[in-house]
Amino acid sequence: MANDFDVQKIIDYWIESSDEDYKTMHDLFHTKNYSWALFIGHLVIEKLLKAYYAKIHKNYPPMLHDLRRIGEKAGIVFDDNKLIIAETISQFNIRARYDDYKRDFQKLCTPEYGATWIENIKEIRLWIKTMLSD
Fold first, then answer.
1. pTM, entire model
2. Residues of the chain below pLDDT 50
3. Residue 2: what pLDDT?
4. Calpha distance 130→122 (Å, rounded)
5. CA angle 68, 78, 47 (to 5 degrees)
6. Are 21 and 44 in contact, with CB atoms under 8 Å apart?
7. What are phi and psi of 106, to 5 degrees?
8. H, E, C per residue of the chain
9. Helix, strand, or coil here: 62?
10. Is 86 within 8 Å of 78 (Cβ atoms)?
11. What is the 3-state secondary structure (H, E, C) of 70-85?
């Protein structure tokens, strides 16, 4: 670790970036861009997990996108429900990004599906933010 490493600055960066993405997620949802809203929702959670990793390990987070793996590396114990939610949200990163998955994912992303998963993202987001504030 470099002498000029400022762990709080890293934590703040990830939290602020996540908060900006959270707004963007809602904006995309309200403009009926459901698949992209969920993709950004993945980033919301990924960034908060990286903030938590930095808080716990006093180091830069791993360059991963899988929410379960980031959480495990940070020492988070997911209950069964949160594990299922995290693993599903991780799939939004892949399905929204790669063309061969994109069309099927867009068909899956109805307003109802999007609203359900936005709620799940909100729930996980608040859970991680609680851990960050401890």
1. 0.93
2. 1-2
3. 46
4. 12
5. 45
6. yes
7. -60, -40
8. CCCCCCHHHHHHHHHHHHHHHHHHHHHHHHCCCHHHHHHHHHHHHHHHHHHHHHHHHCCCCCCCCCHHHHHHHCCCCCCHHHHHHHHHHHHHHHHHHCHHHHHHHHHHCCHHHHHHHHHHHHHHHHHHHHHHHC
9. coil
10. yes
11. HHHHCCCCCCHHHHHH
Tokens of 35: 């698949």
- Which pair of structure tokens corresponds to residue 119? 């709620």
Q: What is the pLDDT of residue 120?
A: 98
DSSP 98: S
Q: What is the structure's pLDDT at 4? A: 63
* CB-based contact 51:11 (threshold 8 Å): yes
Q: Residue 124: what residue type?
A: I
Q: Which residue has the tokens 């109805």?
A: 110
Can you tell me the distance from the alpha carbon of 67 to that of 117, in angstroms, rounded to the nearest whole number?
A: 15
Listed in sequence order, the residues at least 6 apart from 18 whose beta carbon sits closer than 8 Å to its beta carbon are 43, 44, 45, 47, 48, 51, 125
3 state SS of 41: helix
Residue 31, C-beta contacts closer than 8 angstroms, at least 6 positions apart: none
Neighbour count for residue 69 (Cβ, 10 Å): 14
What are the φ/ψ torsions at residue 83 (nearest 5 degrees)? -65, -45
